[in-house]
Write a structure and sequence with these properties.
By secondary structure, the protein is an alpha+beta fold. It contains 13 helices and seven strands.
Length: 389
């Protein structure tokens, strides 16, 4: 029997006649079941003999459990879930940087607790799914470059650290250093910082002093970890000793300083300034790669490029179909096959809204693939119009 069979005995009790799994072996048992109103039974012929007559019933269909879908390797959350949180975290972090930079410029105290909290939330997001915040570094705010640059450098450095095996607790220190790395610019006149043209040698010397100002200011605060200070003072150093402010070589640099140096140059190259246009991601990556082993630490560059992907978010690409589109989401499984928002058809017609395709899911002879990176400016495309803040 597949269930207990009970008989009412009085108003408040049930008497157990046969328990689940009990074998029926006599006519008396059958009679008792009939007396309590049981009219039908199902015989499992795999456990006992069949009887004459009756209706053959098919065995119940096995219930298929839906496969458990897990995030990609190295990710604790799915991109689609983390990106919603990441947008809020990034926006709040930019405001934290804006506040402490303004305070530093006017001689007011800096709320270190806010900085630490911002660093902690940024780090946590990177360790849940690094691709979410990385994708948002494609967003540049021309009018608030100093603030967004600080947050972007923080995120990019955290991404390198995460891929290099740094623990989340250690990475929080990197977050603090990344957010504060340009605090020394609060002492640089805005006329020099925002000058819409080449700097004079004297002005360049003033700009090159900002890491020293950062070091001085962070030491005055008294509660900033040394590793965070190293990021602030070393993010313009180069492994061949040609950087500034101290002309350190690779073996003299802190590992976190080497990471920040790569993150800083990449974000600077891809950002528009009053005196230059921002480079497309693939061109900036080539510039970083060309400095591998001379300006930048070789291992750091390799990790950075692998983590950012061959086609970073915000890159403008041509497909084998002749279509043109923007890389909207990287693919940690195969960086050659990200999600792309198609903007131009194979005939050159521009779409009002991007048609999103996942190159990783495509297969067969008609599968779309990326053939080359393009410069969006040639086609009148502003990347930030297609990437939500």
């Amino acid at each position: 029997m597949e269930a207990d069979v009970k008989e009412s005995a009085g108003e408040s009790k049930n008497v157990l006649l046969m328990g689940k799994g009990m074998l029926i072996t006599s006519e008396n048992q059958i009679r008792r079941l009939q007396e309590v109103g049981l009219k039908d039974v199902t015989i499992d012929t795999s456990k006992g003999k069949d009887v004459a007559g009756g209706t053959v019933v098919d065995a119940p269909a096995a219930i298929k459990m839906a496969p458990v879908v897990k995030p990609p390797a190295g990710r604790k959350a799915f991109f689609k879930d983390e990106i919603k949180v990441a947008r809020k975290i990034r926006g709040a972090s930019v405001q934290v940087v804006k506040e402490f930079m303004n305070n530093a410029a006017t001689g007011r105290s800096i709320d270190v607790k806010k900085v630490n909290l911002a660093a902690k939330t940024l780090t946590a997001s990177v360790f849940r799914n690094v691709d979410a915040l990385l994708s948002l570094t494609a967003l540049k705010n021309y009018s608030e470059f100093t603030y967004t640059h600080s947050v972007n450098v923080c995120i990019l450095t955290l991404a390198i650290a995460h891929a290099s095996g740094v623990t989340e607790q250690e990475a929080e220190v990197i977050g603090v250093g990344g957010l504060l790395h340009d605090i020394g610019k609060a002492r640089i006149p805005l006329a020099i910082l925002d000058k819409p043209g080449p700097l004079t040698p004297e002005e360049r010397k003033i700009i090159m002093d900002h890491p020293l100002y950062s070091e001085e200011m962070l030491r005055e605060m008294g509660n900033v970890p040394e590793a965070a200070i190293a990021i602030a003072v070393q993010h313009h150093e180069k492994v061949n000793g040609t950087g500034y402010p101290y002309g350190l070589t690779g073996d003299q640099m802190h590992p976190f300083g080497s990471m920040a140096a790569v993150a800083d140059i990449y974000d600077a190259l891809t950002s528009a300034r009053p005196y230059k246009v921002g480079l497309p991601p693939h061109v900036a990556l080539r510039r970083v790669f060309d400095g591998r082993g001379t300006e930048f630490d070789t291992k750091v560059v390799d990790v950075f490029i692998k983590n950012l992907g061959i086609y970073p978010v915000g890159g403008f690409v041509r497909l084998n179909t002749g279509e043109l589109g923007i890389v909207l989401e990287s693919n940690p499984v195969d960086s050659r096959k990200p999600k792309v928002g198609i903007i131009f058809s194979r005939f050159g017609k521009r779409r009002d809204t991007p048609y999103v395709v996942d190159l990783y899911e495509a297969s067969g002879a008609d599968a779309r693939t990326i053939t080359e990176a393009e410069d969006p400016k040639r086609y009148g495309v502003n990347i930030e119009d297609y990437i939500q803040a």
